[in-house]
Amino acid sequence: MMISNGIEDEEKWLAEGIAGIQHNAFYLHRALDANNLREALKFSAQLLSELRTSRLSPHKYYELYMRAFDELRRLEMFFKDEDRHGCSVVDLYELVQHAGNILPRLYLLCTVGSVYIKSKEAPAKDVLKDLVEMCRAVQHPIRGLFLRSYLAQVSRDKLPDIGSEYEGEGDTVMDAVEFVLQNFTEMNKLWVRMQHQGPLREKEKLEKERNELRDLVGKNLHVLSQIEGVDLEIYRDTVLPRVLEQIVNCKDELAQYYLMDCIIQVFPDEYHLQTLEILLGACPQLQPTVDLKTVLSQLMERLSNYASSSPELLPEFLQVEAFSKLSNAIGKVIEAQADMPIVGAITLYVSLLTFTLRVHPDRLDYVDQVLGACVKKLSGKPKLEDSKATKQVVALLSAPLDKYDDIVTALTLSNYPRVMDHLDAGTNKVMAMVIIRSIMKNKTCVSTSDKVEVLFELIKGLIKDLEGISTDELDEEDFNEEQNSVACLMHMLYNDDPEEMLQIICTVWKHIKAGGPKRLPFTVPPLVFSALKLVRRLQGQDGDVAGEEVPATPKKIFQLLNQIIEALSVVPSPELALRLYLQCAEAANDCDLEPVAYEFFTQAFVLYEEEVADSKAQVTAIHLIIGTLQRMNVFGVENRDTLTHKATGYSAKLLKKPDQCRAVYACSHLFWVDDQDGIKDGERVLLCLKRSLRIANAAQQMANVTRGSSGPLTLFVEILNKYLYFFEKGNPQITSSVIQGLIELIKTEMQSDSTTANHASDAFFTSTLRYIQFQKQKGGAMGEKYDPIKL
Question: Is the dihedral of CA 525, 531, 537, 538 positive or negative?
Fold first, then answer.
């Protein structure tokens, strides 16, 4: 209620003030029209007396001031025209000083002073000095600020500047600078004093009011920056030291922050660059609560933009040692502001790093220095838990990646991993994903084991459990995405030199083997295939080389592969391990290493026997074993027989009869390999096919017993197709009469009452018969072969 009353009262006072101005303005206009100087001075003084109020807030006072300002402009026009009032400007300057009250007197004096300078009857510097000194008579903050603002306004186009009509005869640019600086100093004192005018409980209100008035003070700095004659020398030797002295001495947080910001915004970038030391030297002397991180960030941003505007400017930055000056200043500010939150310090380092990457992208030592300073600040503190600080560290670490588009450059920065160590486990993983995405996006190839070592140190959050987080707590989808990213990353690690490539594989294995049972199924396969790719490159090299340094040979790599896959079978992930053993066996076959290939098959069979228990998994595994074994040509008779015997034995032991049947007829391919030197044992092929027929028959009978019908004849048609395959390949044991017999058998079964009609198997059989018919009609040698078969 009190607040609303206060606002209503203020509105009432403002209305009264405006009414007073309007009333006196009416008589003023009459006096001006009548060219009556005495009356004009009398009513203008009464009109200006309304500005003596202390009851209005800055916002409302400004409204009142603008009304009076408009009238003063009109009065100034009258003063300029000596013919109208018949009084010389010198006499007028004396005359207005007889006004009864100090505030109206000074407003009138400034107005006449402006005309006095324009008349050039006295040096501009003398009038300006007189005015700026006289204005000291008003010490009320709001009234004083608006009065001095009026003085700045009416004098800004009358300053003795280069090329200005008021320069010369002893009036120099330095006089203009001196005047503006003096006005600025006095205004700043008034502005700071406002803070101490009211009771403590009104601190917030006072701060709000001061914020509303800050532009009046800042305008002086803008005027200074507009003076043509203020060159670098004057700025460096006079303007900047005087302004900074005022800023440091006022010991006011609001004024210091705003005015530092003003300096950065209004003066040219080249001046900032050449006076960096002076400007930065003031920073540690400011109040500890001043938000210097924003001020310095803006300075660095302006300098970065300035540097990128033209490449020719780079030598200037190096000449003034901009980086080391900024770096030292930031260090001192962080030291001086002991209470600065960690997020503030890191924000400063992010700005410095951004500056460095934009101005000196080739100086990796600078980049590393910034990261090192950040490590120093973070060391001795627990892991970051403040989300804002964490965000800034991620920004700090992401900046080099974005700049160089090349993780390899970031890997050369010794402090990069040390900064990452200060992140909590969750953010560490986020950053690791950012690094991997950067590599994938830019298709960066990491080509040395040292760099791989650093890279895997950076992404350790993804490849092993960090303190405080176990894989059980993770969201499965996120976890899978992370591990797939690590798997993709492995394909970006490559070197043409086999030695180095083997080193890279060993380094990766060293890191990922600690990944635990959940991670290994994702990370082992890409590593195995990387190693197999290397094996293919080295194909044909022998393993026995003299000398201490054993080079990268297939044999050596296979030994490593054995260890890697063994870790996977322990996890346990037997099906995956079995597939990888078979892949290795195939590669060993191509390298002509029979003992190695045999060992891998042995491991695969051991896994099949001991670990693969699920019947579906067994079916898949046995078909994989048969398929791989069929392509092997490295084995001698004895080894091949042993393995083939194992495979056929396991096929016949599968749980379901149809699975048994299919695995057994697949084994027939193990005895007939269609290569030039391949095995061709027709009898054993026929044996397998007959055995599969017996199993198919048993499956039919079993179905008859359990379901009352023998089920579809798909298995018989599949076996018939196998017979046809070997018949065409020229197996002497498979004759047209054997095929004829099988066709008759299927037809008889199809007509039997116990067989269930099945569209798919009927269509399969019909299309098989169509194929035989087609071969008969085709003629030639194949046609003759098929001719005896009657359909």
Answer: negative
